[in-house]
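Q: what sequence does this backbone want?
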């Protein structure tokens, strides 16, 4: 039996999207405010210590791709951060972007970005669970102490 290239490509496209739902933690959003958390940084923490703490926290679970210590900026690499049946889900990628703000660096803006591939297009959003976990971790490490 001979299968035409068009039918074959349609069959393969169907297989690629079978079970093609993003993880439940993916939130479709184009509004930057929904995927950004602002963390109050405690007094007395030097810029160098704050950068080292931020970089160490992100590097524990992600690959830090860009750092600019003078600007207080850190960005992780895009990564396939979920797995299905032990295999990385390459249609889902996430990363973090963090920057200290103000002259005194007393605030940290943490943004989480996630993309879900649907065909040739990426759906834009964020991963609520990853954002929650990392913001909790950074508040514990950098935040004001009671």
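A:
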């Amino acid at each position: 039996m001979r299968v035409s290239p068009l039918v074959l490509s349609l069959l393969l496209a169907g297989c690629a999207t079978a079970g093609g739902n993003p993880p439940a933690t993916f939130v479709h959003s184009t509004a930057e405010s929904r995927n950004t958390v602002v963390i109050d940084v405690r007094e007395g923490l030097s810029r160098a210590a704050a950068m080292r703490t931020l970089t160490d926290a992100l590097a524990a679970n992600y690959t830090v791709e860009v750092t600019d210590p003078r600007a207080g900026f850190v960005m992780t690499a895009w990564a396939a951060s979920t797995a299905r049946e032990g295999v990385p889900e390459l249609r889902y990628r996430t990363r973090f972007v963090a920057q200290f703000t103000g002259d005194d660096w007393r605030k940290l803006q943490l943004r989480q970005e996630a993309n879900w591939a649907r065909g040739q297009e990426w759906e834009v959003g964020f991963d609520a669970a990853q954002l929650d976990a990392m913001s909790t971790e950074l508040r514990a490490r950098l935040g004001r102490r009671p």
